[in-house]
Amino acid sequence: MNTDIGTELWPDVTPDAARRLMLAAVDAFATRGFHGTTTRDIATAAGMSPAALYVHFPSKAAVLFAISRSGHSQALRMIRSAAEAEPDPVRCVVRMTTEFVAWHARRHKVARIVQYELHALPPQDFEVVAELRRATEHTVRDVISAGVDAGAFTVPDVRTAARAVLSLGVDVARWYTDTSKPDPEELGRQYAELVLGMLGVR
Amino acid sequence: MNTDIGTELWPDVTPDAARRLMLAAVDAFATRGFHGTTTRDIATAAGMSPAALYVHFPSKAAVLFAISRSGHSQALRMIRSAAEAEPDPVRCVVRMTTEFVAWHARRHKVARIVQYELHALPPQDFEVVAELRRATEHTVRDVISAGVDAGAFTVPDVRTAARAVLSLGVDVARWYTDTSKPDPEELGRQYAELVLGMLGVR
């Protein structure tokens, strides 16, 4: 990943050195896991000294937290924007699924860190991320509930259905690679169709 | 996890000391990741010396491979048994999904290692596991294809649908905990209903 991707992934993070460190951490965590990575590994990969890393992040866990919080905030914004933009539950679910799936496919490397390294966060940081996850899940649940009330959806259990919708998107990050087919947008569209079926729309 | 769970998870593995090491490795990998775990950590947690570990496994990676291969073999057996026992595609998909989901919920700790630590395997070991995964995916794809041919299923793409079915099950291991609701069997049943919808059966 290069610096441009850093700007695209984390437009709110400044300065550029902090983004470079986050990108280097994503690579290192992806290769050696959080516990197998040292702050020196991250700093070196970003072309900096360990001391320079500490100017931007107090610890390796703080870099993980920055990556994880940012990813979860973006997911929540994506899901909330769809909920606000599309009052129709069917159109809303299509948009949510397409965007959520495409993001996890396109950004599978960073998404894997965001989704699978949570257990390594210190408790108070974990709680911040857990709250973002709950808010995302509640938003999806509210949309499905609205669809059930409107007679558009039929599901065995709203909570389980919301989990399943998000689960399909998250798991894309596990198996998707740079050479996977179909491309992220087409995969998003196919998954949206599957999700509509899952919610009883056919 | 205690030794009884070891016998249940790995009935084919002998002697008991090898199973104890695999259980200790699951705990250690779950807490510190593969790269953050030493062979000494595993041996100590199993109440053995590092030298005693090497009697059963040539390396830490060999313990991971034993856990991963066994989990993937069991998943393949489960999926193939369902395919052989249920000639009707609808009943077959219900059975596959229920069992696959319930297993990932009930055994979420070992399933996380089985599903998420693949990248740490040496190339030739990875290839063995990848072959088991391909066989599992092909079996699911064949069942969905048969259902499409029989007019029971309608999907945008058979390959994507098979991935989505397996994805739903695998991702349960990520979020399920010992206190999650519903219980593994009920979750399996709810997911089977969602999967039928996904495949256009309603």
- Order of helix and strand elements from N to C terminus of chain A: HHHHHHHHHH
Largest interface: A-B, 39 and 39 residues
Could you name the CATH topology of the largest domain in chain A? Tetracycline Repressor, domain 2
| Amino-to-carboxy terminus distance of chain A | 41 Å
* Fraction of residues in helix of chain A: over 70%
Could you tell me the strand content of chain A as a percent range?
under 5%
Give the total of domains of chain A.
Answer: 2
Largest sheet of chain A: none
Oligomer: homodimer
CATH superfamily of the largest domain in chain A: Tetracycline Repressor, domain 2
pLDDT below 50 for ≥5 consecutive residues: which ranges of chain A?
Answer: none
What is the highest CATH level, the class of the largest domain in chain A? Mainly Alpha
Structural class by secondary-structure content of chain A: mainly alpha
Shape of chain A: elongated
Give the overall pLDDT of chain A as a whole number: 94
CATH architecture of the largest domain in chain A: Orthogonal Bundle
Radius of gyration of chain A, rounded? 18 Å
Domain HTH tetR-type (chains A, B): 15-75
Keywords (chains A, B): DNA-binding
GO molecular function, one term (chains A, B): transcription cis-regulatory region binding
Pfam families (chains A, B): TetR_C_24 (PF17932), TetR_N (PF00440)
